Amino acid sequence: MFTGIVTDLGTILAVEERDATLRRLRIGTVYDPKTIALGASIACNGICLTAVGMGGEAGQGWFDVDAAAETLARTTLKDWKVGDRINLERALKIGDELGGHIVTGHVDGVAELVEREAVTQDGPWGATARFTLRAPQGTAGYIAEKGSITLDGTSLTVNSVTRDLFSVLLIPHTLDVTNWGGRKPGDRINLEVDMMARYAARLAEARAGGY
Q: Which phi and psi (to 5°) does residue 79 adopt?
């Protein structure tokens, strides 16, 4: 489990195509590799991936992950290339601060970034930006104004909803410490709906169906 609070901006160092259904990636990070256990879960742009190798040292570490067919089909991972910056978050531990919302790292689909606009002009802390996205098929009904959503591993609050379009506001700090600062219209974004919304919708469906 995760919280959607990005703790490092990693870099894709290498990509290896093992076969048509398996891809291995090496991701550079400031995390100390001595603290990453083999088999540990790390959210990479919102995708829960398993560390299958690690090395380097604190501040200049790296870890390897494998992505199989399901992950390649449902996320943006198949498009990642060397040099891309990736939002990272270590798995939640008992006692950690829950600063965002409960995130599973199971991506529901890929949203399209439709528009980016500056809400405030550059000031002492930079500019706040509004991003408008188109929800992937089958997810729009789970997105509610003022509700939580995870986009590329970042826990955000939904600002507005119009059919399959929704918007989020990002403050200067978030733009600075995540890969959102370089996002532009046309980009594809991993989306995970709020877990509570998913179960509420399923409960309503079950009641309507009489089971």
A: -95, -10
Q: What is the mean pLDDT of residues 117-139?
A: 84
- Kindly name the residue from 48, 51, 67, 135 that is annotated as catalytic: 48
**Burial class (CB within 10 angstroms; exposed 0-12, middle 13-18, buried 19+) of 117:** exposed
Q: How confident is the model at residue 197 (pLDDT cuts 50, 70, 90)?
A: confident
**To the nearest whole percent, how much of the chain has pLDDT over 90?**
78
75 catalytic per annotation: no
* pTM, entire model: 0.92
pLDDT of residue 205: 73
Catalytic annotation present for 44: no
Closest CA to 78 of 133, 131, 25: 25
Second CATH level (architecture) for the domain 109-203: Beta Barrel (2.40)
Selecting among 7, 50, 104, 128, the annotated active-site residue is 50
Same fold, 8-90 and 109-203: yes
Tokens of 160: 């507005």
Residue of 7, 11, 40, 41 marked catalytic: 41
* CATH of the domain spanning 8-90, picked from 2.40.30.20, 1.10.10.10, 3.30.360.10, 3.40.50.2300: 2.40.30.20
